Amino acid sequence: MVYVPYISSKLPGYDGPYPVGAFDLELPIDEPDTEPSASFKLDSDDQPLQLESVLFTMFYPTNKKALENKKLIKWFPRPFASTAYGYAKLAEISRTFAGTVPVRRFNRT
Which of UniProt's keywords are assigned here (predicted)? Predict the structure, then answer.
């Protein structure tokens, strides 16, 4: 048996008429925006949350040859622990809780 955290596993395969490719795209914001209602404060006068760019994954139809030897995409970027702790800090959740993730169990074939 192998235990794999759900959110660190790969996205499921797509069963539509075309294979799907993906890439991450980060775009700068023309006028950076701050979030004054952030519940945590910095020691300096800097804003704790300043939106300077937007990062997203774009999925697009492609051909099968373009996907040869490509790995499936993961739910969350690596390193997973750093990503989880960052979200936990933003949500004011303890690091201990952030390190606890549900797992699924399956038989190794």
Answer: Hydrolase, Lipid degradation, Lipid metabolism
Domain count of the fold of the chain: 1
CB 97 within 8 A of CB 88: yes
54, 25 contact by CB (below 8 A) = no
| Prediction pTM value | 0.46
Three-state DSSP at 48 gives: coil
Q: In Å, what is the CA distance from 80 to each residue of 7, 52, 58, 101?
A: 9, 23, 20, 11
Per-residue model confidence as pLDDT tens digits over 30-76: 887 766 555 555 566 665 667 788 888 888 887 777 667 766 666 66
